[in-house]
């Protein structure tokens, strides 16, 4: 309901992922609930979800319905998360704004005269507007970082290949030379840490053997960066 209200205001949702209710009912019956049990997660347009289109803001992909979930969506579901919407991107996703000729312009909920940033602009607008608490985007040169700055959110661009970005996760071979990193967005850092902890699990490592099997290190996060001036003063 809140996602509908937000997208009616700023035009950030492009599709609602069917089967959410069924997934929630299955989750209630499972013994192992997962770290993201019951958490609704919004997904950037280009990330594949079974039965849905990954357009990348381009007309040529509108007829190509995907037959399976990308690895990150599979892992999110196994951890109890409920992917429930796909969100808007700029055409080709290579832009710091968020508009295309299919779904139109996404606005910044904080100021409708401003852009939410890009390319994961639909994610930023939806989370900022209160329609989602956790989102997944992709960053090559600011597509998570920039929109989080514009929208007042927290985001993480992980190290290359820390999270699986299998070929099925993109609407086309758009990124041949530039490598994108999938990462979470939320209103606070703790939510990002929980999402990364959930994603860096055995299932992720088994589904994509190219991802180093290194689990999330909570101690490193709590220690902070030992090279920062503040940390050096405290030591």
Polypeptide structure, described:
Helices cover 30% and strands 14% of the residues. With 235 residues, the protein is of the alpha/beta class. It has a six-stranded mixed beta sheet. A two-stranded antiparallel sheet has the order 4-5. A hairpin with a 3-residue loop joins strand 4 (99-100) and strand 5. It is globular. The chain has one domain (2-224): Amidase signature (AS) domain (Amidase signature (AS) enzymes). Residues 227-235 have low confidence and may be disordered. It has helices at 2-10, 20-29, 71-78, 121-128, 145-151, 189-199, 202-207, 218-223, 229-234, and strands spanning 13-16, 40-44, 82-87, 99-100, 104-105, 134-139, 154-155, 181-186. GO terms for molecular function: amidase activity; fatty acid amide hydrolase activity. InterPro entries: Amidase_dom, AS_sf, Endocannabinoid_amidase. One of its GO terms (biological process) is fatty acid catabolic process.
């Amino acid at each position: 309901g809140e996602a509908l209200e937000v997208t009616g205001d700023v035009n950030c949702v492009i599709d609602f992922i069917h089967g959410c209710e069924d997934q929630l009912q299955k989750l209630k019956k499972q013994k192992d609930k997962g770290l993201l049990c019951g958490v609704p997660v919004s997904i950037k347009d280009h990330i594949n979800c079974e039965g849905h289109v990954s357009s990348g803001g381009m007309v040529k992909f509108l007829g190509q319905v995907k037959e399976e979930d990308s690895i990150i969506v599979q892992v999110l579901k196994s951890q109890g998360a409920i992917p429930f919407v796909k969100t808007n991107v700029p055409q080709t996703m290579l832009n710091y704004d968020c508009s295309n000729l299919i779904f139109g312009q996404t606005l910044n909920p904080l100021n409708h005269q401003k852009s939410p940033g890009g390319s994961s602009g639909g994610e930023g607008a939806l989370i900022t507007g209160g329609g989602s608490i956790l989102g997944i985007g992709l960053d090559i040169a600011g597509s998570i970082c920039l929109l989080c700055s514009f929208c007042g959110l927290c985001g993480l661009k992980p190290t290359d290949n820390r999270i699986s970005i299998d070929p099925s996760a993109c609407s086309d071979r758009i990124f041949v030379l530039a490598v994108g990193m999938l990462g979470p967005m939320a209103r606070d850092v703790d939510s990002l840490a929980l999402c990364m902890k959930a994603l860096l699990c055995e299932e992720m490592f088994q589904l994509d053997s190219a991802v180093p099997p290194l689990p999330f290190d909570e101690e490193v996060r709590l220690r902070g960066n030992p090279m920062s001036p503040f940390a050096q003063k405290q030591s």
